[in-house]
Amino acid sequence: MLRILVVEDEPLVQQRIVRLCRELLGSSTSIDSAASLDDAEDVLRRLPIDVLLLDLNLQGEDGFSLLHRAIASTFHTIVISAHADRALEAFALGVLDFLAKPFPRARLAQALERAQTASRTSGRAARQLGVWRVHGVTLIPVEDIAWIQADGDYCALRLVNGRRELHDKTLDRLQQVLPAAFVRIHRSYLVNMHLADSLLVESGGRYRLRMQGGMELPVGRSRVQSVRERLL
Known about the structure:
35% strand, elongated
């Protein structure tokens, strides 16, 4: 069963979308709604969802800002907007579908079917992380990330090309949305095990994980066994 959040500031349109979703997906479908970006972010903080149905113009607020901030999440996004000229921009941020207003019932049915298929086949892991720049967001494929280090309320991403990027989510939050290949080896480190090389034992019983390229990272004692198993 899909869990859906409808973000739409026009009451009649919001009611129609919710009604159509219930008709298409069944009365037991979990559907929440929000009329502003603040309300939408509050729902996203409290509840896990599978599909976000997002309007781009919310009482003068740009729905894209919600899309940017939520880009590390695992839900799929369907944009419903009168601004069809922004479809390419939306698809560049990884949205699943774009419905231009006004839309027929059959078009929403097609988009929801696509969301159901995507949820069944692609799992819930993020495929890329968004990093804020002065003029927008840069998307980084997760396979390009070698490891992530906690840095206060932020995280430092170390990319395979050696570049360092700062991300505005905590290590715990990123661990929840990244693929299973990313393993916590230390309270401060999350590692892409596809790029790990070997486990080293030092004097005093301390352990370090050598990455491809030679960098060595500390391994917490309680995490040694799980790291060893992942290397086998």
